[in-house]
Amino acid sequence: MKKLPTPVTILMFVIILAAFATWFVPAGKYDTLAYSSGDSFQLSKPDREVSLPFTQRTLDSLHILIRLEKFEHGDIRKPVSVPGSYHRLPQNAQGIIAVIQAPLKGIYDTIDIILFVLMIGSFINVFYSSGAMNKGLIALSYRMKGQEAWLIIVLTFLFSLGGSSFGMAEEALVFYPVLVPLFLAAGYDLLVPVAVIHGGNTLGYLSSFSNPFSTIIASNAAGINWADGLNGRLAVMVITTAIFVTYVVRYAKRVKKDPSKSLVFQTDGLVTPPYPSINDGDKLPESLDRRSGILLLIFAATFSILIFGVLVLDWWLLEMSALFVAASIMVAVIMQMGERVFIEKFIKGAESLLGVAFIIGVARGVTTVLDAGNISGSLLYYASIVVGQMPPSLFIVSLLIVYMVLTLVIPSSSGMAVVTMPILGSLAVVAGVPGKDIVNSYLFGMGIMGLITPTGMILPSLALANVSPKAWWKFIWPMLLILFLFCAIWLVI
Q1: Could you tell me how far CA 213 lies from the centroid of its own chain?
Q2: In a shared domain, residues 265 and 289
C-alpha cells in the first residue's frame, strides 16, 4: 500500500493550494476588534484604526457575542472578526516567492510555541532516562497481581491522563514491552495492552484538558484562553475513559474465561507474543525505591504547577517553558547525571520534537498566505453565508464530522490546530457558537479518528503488539460509534 506524504509535505501542498486560491477567490476581509490594555477597544478597518469605549455596549453594538470580561481577563487574546463588516479589497495574488517564504514566516510567528514544545521534549527525555516511569508501572502491576481488571482500569486512566495533560504520544510506545507480557500472563490477549496504551492515550487526546500540542495551540489560534472549557474537558476525560474501560474490561474478562472469544485468535489464529512471557518465578519489586518515588512526585508536581501557574499566576508560554527547564535540571540533579550526559539528553529530547515544531511553523504558513492574499476574510464570509442558515447544534455536529475527515489527511494535532483555528475561531462568533466548542469539536474529531487513522500512532502500536489492523477494527468499531454519539450529544448540549 502506498504511503501518504508526511504532515510537512501535506501542509506544503496546502500552502500551494492557498496561494493558488488567492488568484481566484475574491479578496476581502472583516473589520477586527482587539483589546490589549487600557480603557478602549481598537477597531481595525481596511483604511483606518478607530478607538472605541471598552464596554459591553460596544460589543453588543457590533453584534459580537462575547462578554466583556473575556477580553479583560485575557481569555480573548487575538483580534476577533466583527460580524457583518465584510469588505471587498483589490486582488493580491501570491506567487512562488510567497509560497517559499510562507513556512519560514510561520516559524517566525510561532517561535514562542515552538520553544515551548522543544522544552517539553527535553523534559520528557531527561525524565524517561531515569527509568522511574517503568519502575512505577512494574511495581503497580506486581501489587495488583490477581486483580488485573483493576490494572486495566488504573493504567487506562493513567495513559488517558498523560495524553490529556501533557500530550503523551510516541512516548507511550516504550510501555509495550512491559505491559504485553503482564497482560498475557493474566490470561488476556494481545488486544488488551493495545487498548490500554493506545486507546487510553488517544482518549486523553480527545479531552486534552491541558495538552500543549492540541488544546493550548488550538485555543491560542482561535483567540481564546485554553482554560476556557477546562472543567468540561475534565468531565469528558473521566466519562469517556470510564466508558472505554468498561468496554475493555468486559472484553478482557470474556477472553480470560474463553480464549476462543479472542478477536486476535478469530482473525489471525495463534499469534506468537512479541516479548518473553512473565513467569511466576520472576521477581518484581514490591515497592518503588525512594529515588524513583521522588522523581514521580516531581513529574506530577511539574504539571500541577503548570496548571496552577496558568490559572492563578497568569503564566503563558515563556513561564511554562522555564518550568520544564527547571524540572529537567531537578531530575538531573537527583539522578546525579553528569553535565555532558544531561545536555546530551536535553538536546536529544528537543530534537525528538523538532518535527512537531516544524509542523507548527509550516502550518501557520497557510494562514500567512491566506492573510497576505486577503482571502481569509472572504472564505470566512462565504462560509458564514452557509452556516448562517444552520442552527448552532447542526453546525457544531457538522464541524465534528469535518474534523474526523480532516484527521485522515492531517494527523498532527498541532498542525490541524494552526491550519483551521484562525478561521473557524472567528467563524464561531459569526455562527453564535462559543470558541471553546469549536476547540472541543476539533479535539473530539481528532480523538475519535486517532483510534484508527493509519497516519497516526495506531499502526506502530499494533506492530509492537503483533496485532493485525483487521483484528483491531473488529474490536474498536463499536466504541467509535459510541464515542461519536457521546461527543455529538455533548457538543449539542
Answers
A1: 5
A2: yes
Grid cell at residue 239: 466519562
- Integer Cα distance of 262 and 213 in angstroms: 35
Question: How many domains does the chain contain in total?
Answer: 2
Q: Do residues 179 and 318 both lie within one domain?
A: yes
Q: Which three cell numbers stand for residue 216?
A: 493550548
Contacts of the segment 31-38: beta carbons below 8 A, 24+ positions apart: 31/81, 31/82, 31/85, 31/87, 32/79, 32/80, 32/81, 32/82, 33/59, 33/62, 33/64, 33/79, 33/80, 33/82, 34/78, 34/79, 34/80, 35/71, 35/72, 35/76
Is 130 a residue whose pLDDT tops 70?
yes
> Residue 285 corresponds to which cell in the numbers above?
519489586
Q: How far apart are CA 211 and CA 368, in angstroms?
A: 25
d(CA 77, CA 63): 19
My answer on whether 46 and 148 are in the same domain is no
Specify whether 134 is located in the same domain as 278. Answer: yes
The answer to whether residues 384 and 63 touch, using CB atoms and an 8 Å cutoff, is no
* Segment among 58-72, 105-119, 313-327 with least mean pLDDT: 58-72
SS3 147: coil
Cell output for 50: 478607530
Specify the higher pLDDT residue, 418 or 254. Answer: 254
**Residues 60 and 208 both lie in one domain:** no
| Among 35, 47, 134, residue whose Cα is nearest residue 88 | 47
Q: How far apart are CA 179 and CA 176, in angstroms?
A: 5
Same domain, 253 and 305: yes
In terms of phi and psi (left: phi > 0; alpha: psi -120 to 50; beta: otherwise), the region of 59 is: alpha
- Average pLDDT of the residues of the chain: 80
What does the pLDDT look like over 200-210, one tens digit per residue? 989 988 988 88
Band of the pLDDT at 1, cuts 50, 70, 90?
Answer: very low
d(CA 399, CA 72): 29
pLDDT tens column, 175-196: 776 678 778 877 788 899 999 9
Residue pair 240/209 in contact (Cβ under 8 Å)? The answer is no
Does 409 have pLDDT greater than 70? no
What's the grid cell of residue 451? Answer: 483510534
Closest-CA residue to 472 (of 480, 462, 482, 464): 462
| Whether residue 61 is found in the same domain as residue 47 | yes
Q: Is residue 94 assigned to a domain?
A: no
Domain that holds residue 348: 1-28+100-493
**Alpha helices (runs of H) in 51-147, residue ranges in sequence order:** 56-61, 68-72, 96-109, 111-128, 132-143
Please count the other Cβ atoms lying within 10 Å of the Cβ belonging to residue 92: 13
Residue with cell 503482564: 182
